Amino acid sequence: MESKDRLFTYCIEEDARGPYVSIESYVSDVKAVQIPDFVDNIPVKELKPYVFAGNAHREVYLPGTIRRIGRYGFYNCRELNFLSFHSNIEDVGSGCFTGCHKVKTLEVTMTDDTFSCFREILSEFSEELYVIYHGEEEARLMFPEFYEEGVENTPARILMTEVHGSGIHYRNCFQGARFHFQEYDARFPMAKARESQEFSIKLALGRLSFPCQLSGNAKEEYKNYLLERQTLVVRSLIERQEPELLMWFLEDVSRKKRLGEEELQEALQFAQRKGDARICACLMEYQGRYGSRRSSIEDMEL
Fold first, then answer.
1. Which of 47, 120, 134, 188 is buried most deeply by CB count within 10 Å?
2. Contact (CB, 8 A) for 191 and 181
């Protein structure tokens, strides 16, 4: 049976668990797509092949009921930059995300310890990624880019594939279905050596601000890296317009290494040039608290 909703066409199918909805096409041109969990109390379990192919959607939110995405489901969705999904998708079709080169953020909700599509979907994207991770604890993870290159072994007449970039190593931090945070943290020296300072700063900030399964040694390594580049971190957070994260960094991470008056003035001037009133207010509040003098307790801690 085929039906048409205001936003999509779908059909009702049946498996061993009963009837389910299969989305066949999405007919709306909205930029943010929210697939429903249920249609007329029937769970939405499947996205048919090519369901979003060539569409200009920028954000797609998939419910926890989805179990299958057909082949080339998001083929050439050139504007897609955000995808939210649950880890219990059982089948991701071939070429599902081919041509989706603008995806910058994945949001994954972990639902099962025995099975997860997280690794499979993560590996679909070779570009730099920011991952919002919802599990037993919250995490914010950065994944570097990687790229593949075909190299010909002329004497043997064999075409070999070489993978460049630390991104492939970061995407292999799994033990079975579970993401392995300790392996992820152990790769930070690789990121520092191969990736930009801006990337490594974002990675360290993500792990410290959401310290899911973060060991004491890894915490110190991330913290020391940021403190050695304190001015760059502040400038980066101003550039990214993240006042809450900036204040957390200044108040918590930099508690024993306050910004000097000259550094603070430079940060304020930079924020003013950016025209960000919230950042300016945060920095002025910080200046009022710590700009001219520190308490004796803080001096003793230093």
1. 47
2. no
Q: Of the ranges 26-35, 120-129, 201-210, which one carries the lowest mean pLDDT score?
A: 26-35
Q: How far apart are CA 184 and CA 115, in angstroms?
A: 20
- Closest CA relative to residue 106, chosen from 79, 134, 146, 78: 134
Residues found in the chain: 302
Both tokens assigned to 30: 């909205």
Tens digits of per-residue pLDDT, 148-170? 665 566 665 666 556 668 999 99
d(CA 135, CA 67): 19
Quick one: DSSP state of residue 38? E
Please give the domain boundaries of the chain with CATH numbers for all domains.
1-125 (3.80.10.10)
Residue 202's nearest CA partner among 121, 129, 283 is 129
Q: What is the 3-state secondary structure (H, E, C) of 171-221?
A: CCCEECCEECHHHHHHCHHHHHHHCCHHHHHHHHHHHHHCCCCCCHHHHHH
The pTM of this model reads 0.89
